[in-house]
Design brief:
The structure is a homodimer.
Chain A: H1 3-13, H2 16-28, E1 33-34, H3 35-42, H4 46-59, E2 62-67, E3 70-75, H5 77-91, H6 96-100
Antiparallel strand pairs in A: 1-3, 2-3
Helix pairs in contact in A: 3-4
Chain A binds a DNA duplex (30 and 30 nucleotides) through helix 3 and helix 4.
DNA sequence: CTTTCATTTCAATGATTCTTGAAATACCCT
DNA sequence: AGGGTATTTCAAGAATCATTGAAATGAAAG
């Protein structure tokens, strides 16, 4: 991944509403959740939730699928994985020191 | 780490100049690099480099130390590590699927 | 075919962030 | 002290981003 793309993805993550949406959709699992339910869950107006859902979808963090009347969103882990890989490998050159700074198990 | 802090840290990383500075300082290693050398290396004016160096320092990604006339900056991996941990553990609840999406070795 | 529900889009406004160049500060040397 | 180098700070303006509420779209159901 090129730095400009990474910067844009970080920009999408630099908002608490959007981080909150990601968390909610991780909890929701593979079945995902409708835009309305997400909006209620994060305490945002429909248009505000839609704005952030769109930013996340455009960036590739989410998949959107219409299910009759509702739009169902679900998480896609690939972009987050690519971003973590960028940070550790491209940006920090696989630094062992950085690995030690991550508190989860890293091989 | 609380979501608002993570959002702010992502905001700091959402800029190519700043990602570039991090890369340059990872390469520079523990001895770090002066503000002027960093500015030249990333092709930015002194004041622009200073603006971004300040953002990175305030966020805790960098350490600053005066060495006689020059200010020396060096990378601190702890914040990046904390951010990766937030993303994998807090935000994505340690998802095994996310781990599979990271191309480096994860235990 | 009109109504209703779910969601997005739009326009206006406010807030934040970035860039630039000039001025200020900090330090060193003679 | 005075002059030079390194860096930051500041003010102004441009650009980007977020919020709001109203209007538009899409899909189902009476």
């Amino acid at each position: 991944m090129v730095a400009e793309d990474a910067a844009n993805l970080f920009g999408v993550l630099s908002n608490t509403d959007r981080l909150c949406i990601i968390r909610v959709l991780v909890e929701a699992g593979p079945s995902g959740m409708s835009a309305g339910d997400i909006a209620r869950k994060i305490g945002a107006s429909p248009s505000r939730a839609s704005f952030h859902l769109n930013a996340l979808s455009e960036a590739g963090f989410l998949h959107r699928e219409r299910q009759s009347r509702t739009l169902n969103y679900r998480i896609d882990f690939n972009r987050i994985g690519a971003l973590i890989t960028f940070l550790m490998e491209d940006c920090c050159k696989g630094s062992a020191e950085l690995r030690n700074c991550c508190s989860m198990r890293l091989g």
